Amino acid sequence: MAEPLKAVYNEPFLQHFASVLHNEYTPFNQAAFINEVMDDAWEGLELKARMRKISTALGNYLPDAYGDALDVLLRISEDCKGFPYLLLPDFVEVYGQADEHWELSINALEQFTQGSSAEFAVRPFILRDPERMMAQMEKWSHHSNEHVRRLASEGCRPRLPWGVALIPFKQDPAPILPILERLKEDDSLYVRKSVANNLNDIAKDHPDAVLALARRWQGGHPHTDWIIRHGCRTLIRQAVPEIMELFGYAVSSDSDALADHAAISTDPTSIAIGESCSLNYELRLREGDPVRIRIEYGIEFVKAGGKTSRKLFLLSDKTVAGGTVLSGQRTHRWADLTTRRHYPGEHRIALLVNGREVADCVMQLAQGNAPQS
Predict the structure, then answer these.
(1) Share of the chain above pLDDT 90, in %
(2) Phi/psi at 221 (nearest 5 deg)?
(3) Contacting residues for 348 by C-beta, under 8 A, at least 6 apart
(4) How far, rounded to the nearest angstrom, does the alpha carbon of residue 34 sit from its chain's CA centroid?
(5) Which of 3, 38, 122, 219, CA to CA, is 20 to 30 A from 184?
(6) Pairing assessment for the beta strands 291-302 and 308-320 based on DSSP bridges
(7) In terms of DSSP bridges, do strands 325-333 and 345-353 run parallel, antiparallel, or are they unpaired?
(8) Rounded distance between C-alpha atoms, residue 54 and residue 278, angstroms
């Protein structure tokens, strides 16, 4: 089993980090710093709590003046790059939000993000002074470094995973849109992915706004076309009719179904949590012109309280000739994940074509060993 992500912050990491700090700032007490961080509560802390524990403790062993402490961290930043060093911008978030520190903090975030990312640390600054901070984000969107340009988009995502939600932008995304306009043809895929993810966040609260933007952007540039396709993925999964039409998916209705035959089954039909089954599907498309289709299966997962919640899984997305028979097999593993726990019970599984159910079956999930069929 893979180590949890929080394990990046372990004693060898802290020893190395403390040594780097001591080499740059000799009063830094390495042993005391490590002891303070790895106290009795350490083992129970998850990733972001460990990061915050480290960055908060730094304030007790670096110079008292914020600017002097920040200068030490900036001097070591060239040697401290990668995911674990998100703790450097986190230090800025913890100690640098006062108005008198604004310039120092913003310059530090710009520097630190080039070696890791300041996407989490920048968010409290946005909430504290949205107008001033979004003006800064607009400046960053012109930066020569792709990491800084990405920060301009990633930092203002309304629903950034693991990040503080930007409630004002969930309510009104207008301040974000000029940043996305600026970056919609960016040469960096790293930046374009962030723009698409930002759009996907916005689409969850303002689908009409994203639909209007996608219509306006479509066909303007290959980079932009990729962004809107990826940025509308939630709306595509929801089979919003206008979005399906925009991206050329064939229309289906009760009187004119896309598939005139469809079936889905599982082997076995009863299984234990942690085991795998085969999903087998087959469908025959209606006769006629070539059509673009998106084939998915949706599982109605049983939740702890007995209710169900559907999750969709993509099987195929392509253009095929009318009358084509499509079939396939997919192995689905029913193991618990950090993002999903499984519970015993009857799980309905549906086959969908362009968002419409065309067939279904049932899988019985058991706790412990399940009978095989």
Answers:
(1) 92
(2) -165, 140
(3) 299, 300, 308, 360, 361, 362
(4) 32
(5) 122
(6) antiparallel
(7) unpaired
(8) 45
